[in-house]
Amino acid sequence: MDMHAMTLNDLERRSGRDVFIVAEIGKNFIVTEEEESVETLLRRAQLLVDAAVDAGVDAVKFQTHHVADEQLNIPIVSPHFPANDRYRWVERNTRQTPMDAFWRPLSIYCAEKHMRMFTTPMSKGAAIQMSELGMSLWKVGSADVLDYLLLDTLVSFKKPIIISTGMVSRQELQAVMQHLARARVTPIILYCVSQYPCPPEVFNLASIQYLKDAYPHAIVGFSDHSLGMDVALAAIKIGARMIEKHFSLSRDAWGPDHKVSMLPHEMKELVRAVRSGTYVAASPEAFYGDIDKEFEGAHNTFRPFFNKSLVVVRDIREGETIEETDLAAMRPRALIPGALAQDYAELVGKQVMHALTQFSPITLTDVKLL
After folding, report:
1. Quick one: how far is CA 266 from the chain centroid?
2. 190 and 165 Cβ atoms separated by less than 8 Å
3. What are the percentages of helix, strand and coil residues in the chain, rounded to 5?
4. Which range, of 31-45, 60-74, 75-89, 343-357, averages the lowest pLDDT?
5. 94 with 67: CB under 8 angstroms?
6. DSSP assignment, residue 367?
7. What is the DSSP string of 293-307?
Protein backbone atom coordinates (compact mmCIF):
# COMPACT_ATOMS: atom_id res chain seq x y z
CA MET A 1 0.00 0.00 0.00
CA ASP A 2 1.34 3.45 -0.95
CA MET A 3 1.44 5.53 2.22
CA HIS A 4 1.24 8.69 0.10
CA ALA A 5 -2.22 7.60 -0.98
CA MET A 6 -3.31 6.27 2.39
CA THR A 7 -6.84 7.06 3.53
CA LEU A 8 -8.88 5.94 6.49
CA ASN A 9 -10.65 3.43 4.25
CA ASP A 10 -7.31 1.93 3.24
CA LEU A 11 -6.63 1.06 6.86
CA GLU A 12 -10.19 -0.11 7.45
CA ARG A 13 -9.91 -2.57 4.59
CA ARG A 14 -6.82 -4.20 6.07
CA SER A 15 -7.60 -7.37 7.96
CA GLY A 16 -6.54 -7.96 11.54
CA ARG A 17 -3.66 -10.04 10.20
CA ASP A 18 -2.39 -6.96 8.39
CA VAL A 19 -2.31 -4.53 11.28
CA PHE A 20 -0.25 -1.46 10.45
CA ILE A 21 3.04 -1.73 12.37
CA VAL A 22 5.19 1.32 13.07
CA ALA A 23 8.81 1.18 14.20
CA GLU A 24 9.18 4.30 16.34
CA ILE A 25 12.83 5.22 15.79
CA GLY A 26 12.19 8.59 17.38
CA LYS A 27 15.64 9.94 18.27
CA ASN A 28 17.27 6.55 18.79
CA PHE A 29 19.97 7.42 16.28
CA ILE A 30 21.52 9.33 19.22
CA VAL A 31 23.33 6.81 21.43
CA THR A 32 26.03 8.72 23.30
CA GLU A 33 26.14 11.66 25.68
CA GLU A 34 29.05 13.03 23.70
CA GLU A 35 27.97 14.67 20.48
CA GLU A 36 28.71 12.95 17.21
CA SER A 37 28.79 14.36 13.70
CA VAL A 38 25.60 14.83 11.71
CA GLU A 39 27.00 12.34 9.19
CA THR A 40 27.38 9.71 11.92
CA LEU A 41 23.84 10.27 13.16
CA LEU A 42 22.45 10.07 9.63
CA ARG A 43 24.25 6.80 8.98
CA ARG A 44 22.92 5.33 12.23
CA ALA A 45 19.40 6.44 11.32
CA GLN A 46 19.83 4.72 7.96
CA LEU A 47 20.96 1.53 9.72
CA LEU A 48 17.79 1.67 11.82
CA VAL A 49 15.75 2.05 8.64
CA ASP A 50 17.55 -0.97 7.18
CA ALA A 51 16.70 -3.00 10.28
CA ALA A 52 13.07 -1.91 10.07
CA VAL A 53 12.90 -2.91 6.42
CA ASP A 54 14.33 -6.31 7.30
CA ALA A 55 11.81 -6.71 10.13
CA GLY A 56 8.94 -6.08 7.71
CA VAL A 57 7.23 -3.11 9.41
CA ASP A 58 4.90 -0.82 7.50
CA ALA A 59 6.50 2.48 8.46
CA VAL A 60 9.25 4.16 10.44
CA LYS A 61 8.58 7.23 12.55
CA PHE A 62 10.98 9.85 13.83
CA GLN A 63 10.62 12.76 16.25
CA THR A 64 11.42 16.29 15.09
CA HIS A 65 12.40 19.23 17.29
CA HIS A 66 12.57 23.00 16.71
CA VAL A 67 13.85 24.43 19.98
CA ALA A 68 12.94 28.05 19.15
CA ASP A 69 9.23 27.40 19.60
CA GLU A 70 9.23 24.24 21.73
CA GLN A 71 11.33 24.60 24.89
CA LEU A 72 12.18 27.67 26.94
CA ASN A 73 15.72 27.83 28.31
CA ILE A 74 14.59 26.99 31.84
CA PRO A 75 16.42 24.29 33.82
CA ILE A 76 14.16 21.26 34.19
CA VAL A 77 14.86 17.51 34.10
CA SER A 78 12.25 14.94 33.15
CA PRO A 79 11.99 11.91 35.47
CA HIS A 80 12.28 9.50 32.54
CA PHE A 81 15.63 10.97 31.39
CA PRO A 82 17.58 12.45 34.33
CA ALA A 83 20.83 12.40 32.35
CA ASN A 84 20.03 15.63 30.52
CA ASP A 85 17.99 18.77 31.09
CA ARG A 86 15.23 19.29 28.56
CA TYR A 87 16.52 22.47 26.94
CA ARG A 88 19.96 21.03 26.21
CA TRP A 89 18.38 17.83 24.85
CA VAL A 90 15.93 19.65 22.56
CA GLU A 91 18.57 22.17 21.44
CA ARG A 92 20.95 19.33 20.59
CA ASN A 93 18.29 17.48 18.61
CA THR A 94 17.43 20.64 16.69
CA ARG A 95 21.03 21.51 15.88
CA GLN A 96 22.16 18.00 14.95
CA THR A 97 19.32 17.24 12.54
CA PRO A 98 19.45 20.02 9.92
CA MET A 99 17.06 19.73 7.02
CA ASP A 100 19.56 19.53 4.16
CA ALA A 101 22.16 17.37 5.91
CA PHE A 102 19.89 15.02 7.85
CA TRP A 103 16.13 15.00 7.24
CA ARG A 104 16.13 15.39 3.47
CA PRO A 105 18.73 12.68 2.78
CA LEU A 106 17.02 10.42 5.33
CA SER A 107 13.69 10.89 3.55
CA ILE A 108 15.32 10.08 0.22
CA TYR A 109 16.95 7.00 1.75
CA CYS A 110 13.59 5.75 3.06
CA ALA A 111 12.03 6.24 -0.38
CA GLU A 112 14.87 4.27 -1.98
CA LYS A 113 14.26 1.46 0.52
CA HIS A 114 10.49 1.59 -0.14
CA MET A 115 9.92 2.35 3.54
CA ARG A 116 7.23 4.81 4.58
CA MET A 117 8.59 7.57 6.79
CA PHE A 118 6.67 10.04 8.91
CA THR A 119 7.30 12.09 12.01
CA THR A 120 6.06 13.44 15.31
CA PRO A 121 6.80 17.17 15.17
CA MET A 122 7.20 18.55 18.68
CA SER A 123 6.13 22.09 17.77
CA LYS A 124 4.52 24.16 15.05
CA GLY A 125 7.95 25.12 13.75
CA ALA A 126 9.00 21.49 13.49
CA ALA A 127 5.82 20.66 11.58
CA ILE A 128 6.36 23.48 9.10
CA GLN A 129 9.95 22.35 8.59
CA MET A 130 9.06 18.71 7.96
CA SER A 131 6.17 19.62 5.65
CA GLU A 132 8.86 20.43 3.06
CA LEU A 133 9.37 16.67 2.71
CA GLY A 134 5.75 15.97 1.82
CA MET A 135 4.79 13.98 4.91
CA SER A 136 1.63 12.01 4.12
CA LEU A 137 0.91 11.08 7.74
CA TRP A 138 1.54 12.93 11.00
CA LYS A 139 1.55 12.00 14.65
CA VAL A 140 0.83 14.30 17.57
CA GLY A 141 2.70 13.06 20.61
CA SER A 142 0.94 12.54 23.93
CA ALA A 143 2.30 15.76 25.45
CA ASP A 144 1.29 17.89 22.48
CA VAL A 145 -2.32 16.85 21.92
CA LEU A 146 -3.39 20.05 23.71
CA ASP A 147 -1.07 22.25 21.62
CA TYR A 148 -3.68 23.59 19.22
CA LEU A 149 -1.11 25.81 17.47
CA LEU A 150 0.62 22.60 16.39
CA LEU A 151 -2.64 20.77 15.80
CA ASP A 152 -4.08 23.48 13.55
CA THR A 153 -0.84 23.61 11.57
CA LEU A 154 -1.08 19.87 10.93
CA VAL A 155 -4.77 20.22 10.06
CA SER A 156 -3.81 22.71 7.34
CA PHE A 157 -1.76 20.00 5.59
CA LYS A 158 -4.94 17.91 5.12
CA LYS A 159 -3.28 14.57 5.85
CA PRO A 160 -4.23 11.85 8.36
CA ILE A 161 -3.28 12.73 11.94
CA ILE A 162 -2.48 10.22 14.67
CA ILE A 163 -3.40 11.28 18.19
CA SER A 164 -1.78 9.59 21.19
CA THR A 165 -3.71 9.44 24.48
CA GLY A 166 -0.76 9.10 26.86
CA MET A 167 -1.13 12.52 28.52
CA VAL A 168 -4.78 13.43 27.97
CA SER A 169 -8.09 12.77 29.68
CA ARG A 170 -11.14 11.36 27.94
CA GLN A 171 -12.71 14.84 27.94
CA GLU A 172 -9.62 16.44 26.42
CA LEU A 173 -9.48 13.77 23.73
CA GLN A 174 -13.15 14.34 22.92
CA ALA A 175 -12.51 18.06 22.36
CA VAL A 176 -9.60 17.25 20.02
CA MET A 177 -11.63 14.71 18.08
CA GLN A 178 -14.46 17.23 17.63
CA HIS A 179 -11.89 19.75 16.39
CA LEU A 180 -10.53 17.27 13.83
CA ALA A 181 -14.05 16.33 12.72
CA ARG A 182 -14.86 19.98 12.00
CA ALA A 183 -11.66 20.20 9.97
CA ARG A 184 -12.52 16.99 8.05
CA VAL A 185 -9.17 15.39 8.89
CA THR A 186 -8.68 11.62 8.96
CA PRO A 187 -8.22 10.63 12.65
CA ILE A 188 -6.23 7.74 14.04
CA ILE A 189 -6.14 7.26 17.82
CA LEU A 190 -3.35 5.36 19.53
CA TYR A 191 -4.19 4.34 23.07
CA CYS A 192 -1.07 4.87 25.15
CA VAL A 193 0.16 4.93 28.73
CA SER A 194 3.13 7.27 29.11
CA GLN A 195 5.27 5.30 31.51
CA TYR A 196 8.73 4.05 30.57
CA PRO A 197 8.54 1.09 30.76
CA CYS A 198 4.87 0.62 31.50
CA PRO A 199 4.00 -2.03 34.12
CA PRO A 200 1.35 -4.55 33.01
CA GLU A 201 -1.15 -3.64 35.73
CA VAL A 202 -1.44 -0.09 34.36
CA PHE A 203 -2.32 -0.87 30.73
CA ASN A 204 -6.12 -1.07 31.00
CA LEU A 205 -6.49 -2.27 27.40
CA ALA A 206 -10.26 -2.04 27.82
CA SER A 207 -9.68 1.59 26.79
CA ILE A 208 -9.14 0.32 23.24
CA GLN A 209 -12.69 -1.00 23.22
CA TYR A 210 -13.89 2.28 24.74
CA LEU A 211 -12.22 4.23 21.92
CA LYS A 212 -13.66 1.94 19.24
CA ASP A 213 -17.14 2.49 20.69
CA ALA A 214 -16.74 6.23 21.25
CA TYR A 215 -15.15 7.00 17.86
CA PRO A 216 -16.46 4.43 15.36
CA HIS A 217 -15.21 6.43 12.38
CA ALA A 218 -11.60 6.51 13.61
CA ILE A 219 -8.88 3.90 13.37
CA VAL A 220 -7.87 2.82 16.89
CA GLY A 221 -4.45 1.45 17.66
CA PHE A 222 -1.95 1.06 20.46
CA SER A 223 1.37 2.75 21.24
CA ASP A 224 3.17 0.24 23.44
CA HIS A 225 5.82 1.18 26.02
CA SER A 226 6.14 -2.31 27.48
CA LEU A 227 9.01 -4.69 26.92
CA GLY A 228 8.27 -7.69 24.73
CA MET A 229 5.24 -8.19 22.53
CA ASP A 230 2.62 -9.82 24.77
CA VAL A 231 0.73 -6.60 25.42
CA ALA A 232 0.83 -5.53 21.78
CA LEU A 233 -0.60 -8.88 20.65
CA ALA A 234 -3.31 -8.65 23.31
CA ALA A 235 -4.17 -5.17 22.04
CA ILE A 236 -4.52 -6.49 18.50
CA LYS A 237 -6.82 -9.24 19.69
CA ILE A 238 -9.00 -6.60 21.37
CA GLY A 239 -9.13 -4.65 18.11
CA ALA A 240 -6.08 -2.40 17.70
CA ARG A 241 -5.44 -1.77 14.00
CA MET A 242 -2.13 0.05 14.34
CA ILE A 243 0.78 -0.89 16.62
CA GLU A 244 3.68 1.40 17.44
CA LYS A 245 6.78 0.21 19.27
CA HIS A 246 10.00 2.08 20.04
CA PHE A 247 12.86 0.66 17.98
CA SER A 248 16.60 0.63 18.70
CA LEU A 249 19.79 -1.23 17.91
CA SER A 250 20.59 -1.54 21.64
CA ARG A 251 18.64 -1.12 24.87
CA ASP A 252 21.92 -0.19 26.60
CA ALA A 253 22.49 2.93 24.52
CA TRP A 254 22.42 6.42 26.06
CA GLY A 255 19.11 8.24 25.65
CA PRO A 256 15.55 8.29 26.99
CA ASP A 257 13.81 5.68 24.80
CA HIS A 258 16.33 2.90 24.14
CA LYS A 259 15.43 1.11 27.37
CA VAL A 260 11.79 0.58 26.26
CA SER A 261 12.63 -0.24 22.64
CA MET A 262 12.33 -3.39 20.60
CA LEU A 263 15.51 -4.73 19.05
CA PRO A 264 15.53 -5.71 15.36
CA HIS A 265 15.11 -9.45 15.92
CA GLU A 266 12.27 -8.77 18.37
CA MET A 267 10.48 -6.50 15.90
CA LYS A 268 10.80 -9.17 13.25
CA GLU A 269 9.23 -11.66 15.66
CA LEU A 270 6.34 -9.26 16.36
CA VAL A 271 5.71 -8.73 12.65
CA ARG A 272 5.75 -12.50 12.09
CA ALA A 273 3.26 -13.05 14.94
CA VAL A 274 0.90 -10.43 13.50
CA ARG A 275 1.15 -11.47 9.87
CA SER A 276 0.76 -15.16 10.64
CA GLY A 277 -2.30 -14.57 12.80
CA THR A 278 -0.78 -16.19 15.88
CA TYR A 279 -1.85 -13.12 17.87
CA VAL A 280 -5.26 -14.80 18.17
CA ALA A 281 -3.73 -16.99 20.87
CA ALA A 282 -2.91 -13.92 22.99
CA SER A 283 -4.58 -13.57 26.39
CA PRO A 284 -5.83 -10.00 26.93
CA GLU A 285 -7.42 -10.74 30.33
CA ALA A 286 -4.34 -9.83 32.40
CA PHE A 287 -4.13 -6.42 30.72
CA TYR A 288 -7.82 -5.68 30.11
CA GLY A 289 -8.91 -3.71 33.19
CA ASP A 290 -12.05 -1.55 33.34
CA ILE A 291 -13.70 -0.03 30.27
CA ASP A 292 -15.13 2.82 32.36
CA LYS A 293 -11.79 3.86 33.83
CA GLU A 294 -10.41 7.33 33.06
CA PHE A 295 -7.24 7.44 30.96
CA GLU A 296 -4.06 7.34 33.00
CA GLY A 297 -3.08 10.39 30.95
CA ALA A 298 -5.51 12.58 32.89
CA HIS A 299 -3.12 12.58 35.84
CA ASN A 300 0.13 11.44 34.21
CA THR A 301 3.19 12.58 36.15
CA PHE A 302 4.89 13.90 33.01
CA ARG A 303 2.22 16.50 32.22
CA PRO A 304 3.86 19.39 34.15
CA PHE A 305 7.15 18.73 32.35
CA PHE A 306 5.81 18.32 28.82
CA ASN A 307 2.54 20.25 28.56
CA LYS A 308 2.86 23.77 27.15
CA SER A 309 1.97 27.37 27.93
CA LEU A 310 1.63 30.31 25.56
CA VAL A 311 4.42 32.88 25.21
CA VAL A 312 5.04 35.73 22.79
CA VAL A 313 7.88 35.23 20.33
CA ARG A 314 8.81 38.91 19.92
CA ASP A 315 8.76 42.13 21.90
CA ILE A 316 5.23 43.53 21.78
CA ARG A 317 4.32 47.13 22.56
CA GLU A 318 1.29 48.19 24.57
CA GLY A 319 -1.77 48.45 22.33
CA GLU A 320 -0.47 46.10 19.62
CA THR A 321 -2.80 43.41 18.29
CA ILE A 322 -1.79 39.80 18.82
CA GLU A 323 -1.43 37.76 15.66
CA GLU A 324 -1.16 33.98 15.57
CA THR A 325 2.45 34.30 14.43
CA ASP A 326 3.23 36.22 17.64
CA LEU A 327 2.48 33.16 19.78
CA ALA A 328 4.29 29.93 20.57
CA ALA A 329 3.28 27.02 22.79
CA MET A 330 6.35 26.12 24.83
CA ARG A 331 7.42 23.76 27.58
CA PRO A 332 7.51 23.34 30.55
CA ARG A 333 3.98 24.18 31.62
CA ALA A 334 4.95 23.85 35.30
CA LEU A 335 7.32 26.84 35.08
CA ILE A 336 5.59 29.06 32.52
CA PRO A 337 2.52 30.88 33.90
CA GLY A 338 0.98 31.55 30.51
CA ALA A 339 -2.39 30.67 29.03
CA LEU A 340 -3.01 27.05 28.11
CA ALA A 341 -1.76 26.12 24.66
CA GLN A 342 -5.25 25.02 23.61
CA ASP A 343 -6.59 28.55 24.25
CA TYR A 344 -4.42 30.39 21.71
CA ALA A 345 -7.41 31.38 19.52
CA GLU A 346 -8.84 33.42 22.41
CA LEU A 347 -5.76 35.68 22.30
CA VAL A 348 -5.51 36.19 18.54
CA GLY A 349 -6.89 39.56 17.47
CA LYS A 350 -6.80 41.06 20.97
CA GLN A 351 -4.84 44.17 21.98
CA VAL A 352 -2.21 43.82 24.68
CA MET A 353 -2.71 46.08 27.70
CA HIS A 354 1.00 46.44 28.49
CA ALA A 355 4.34 45.76 26.82
CA LEU A 356 5.61 42.18 26.69
CA THR A 357 9.18 41.11 26.06
CA GLN A 358 10.14 38.19 23.85
CA PHE A 359 9.32 34.78 25.39
CA SER A 360 7.18 36.33 28.15
CA PRO A 361 4.14 34.26 29.14
CA ILE A 362 0.84 35.72 27.97
CA THR A 363 -2.62 35.19 29.50
CA LEU A 364 -6.12 36.53 28.93
CA THR A 365 -5.47 39.12 31.64
CA ASP A 366 -2.78 40.66 29.40
CA VAL A 367 -5.20 41.56 26.61
CA LYS A 368 -8.37 43.61 26.18
CA LEU A 369 -11.34 41.30 25.89
CA LEU A 370 -13.82 42.33 23.17
Report:
1. 22
2. yes
3. 45, 15, 40
4. 75-89
5. yes
6. B
7. SPPGGGG-TTHHHH-
